[in-house]
Write the C-alpha cells for this entry.
Amino acid sequence: MIGTKEKIEYGKQTIEFNLYQEERKTLTINVLPNSDIRIKAPLKNTKGEIIEKIKSKAKWITKQQKYFEQNYFKPAEKNYISGETHLYLGKQYRLKIASGDKNSIKLKNGYFFIEHLNDDKTVFKALLNNWYKKRAKEIFDERLNACYQKFLKYDIQKPDIKILKLKKRWGSYNKKNNTIIINIDCVKVSKACIDYILIHELCHCINYSHNKAFYEILETVCPDWKTTKSKLETIKI
C-alpha cells in the first residue's frame, strides 16, 4: 500500500490528510477522533481525481473535525492516588491505596483496593494495568464468542483475537491471518461498546472495505451501531 501526505485548500482552511492507494474499488474518507484524516483510494485513480473527490467532501470533513474537537477529550494523565477514578466496563471505580505486607489489587464494593509494600506510583500503575490485561483476555474472548453467533449465517471462520495497546484505534482486522486486533483500553468501556467494536471487525471478515456493502452488513447485525459509535467517540479513558 502506497502512502503519502497531501493537502488541499478549503476556503481559508488547509486540510491535510494521509493518502493510501491500494487494490480496492472505492474511495473512503475516515476522520479520526484526533482530527487526522485517512484517505484510501483505488490504485487506478489519478492524484487529480482523488483530490477532486476530497474537495467535494471538504465540508463534511471539516464538520467531522469540528465535532471531534468539541466532543473528543484527550485522556488526562493518571496520578494513581487514593480517590482517583478508573474505568472498567463503562463504570468508574475509585482507588483505595494502603500499605500492606504484599503488592496486590482487587475490585470490591465499587473500589479498586491496592495494597503495597512501597509507596511507589509505578507499582500501582503496573498492578492496575496487569489487572486490566487479565480481565481483558477473559472478557474479549467471551464477547467475541457471543458476537460471532450473529455471523453464523455468513459462514465465516471465527477470527483469533490479539490484545495490544493502540494509540488511535479501538481495533482493526488483519485479513492475512484472520485476526482481530483490539485495544487493551476497550476493557474500560461497556460491553455494548466492546460488542460494537468486535462486530465492526467481524464485518471486515465478510467485506474488508468500508463500502456500502460493509455498512449494510453492519446495519443488519448491529442496528444501533451509530448510537454506540457516537458514545465511543466521546469516552474519556
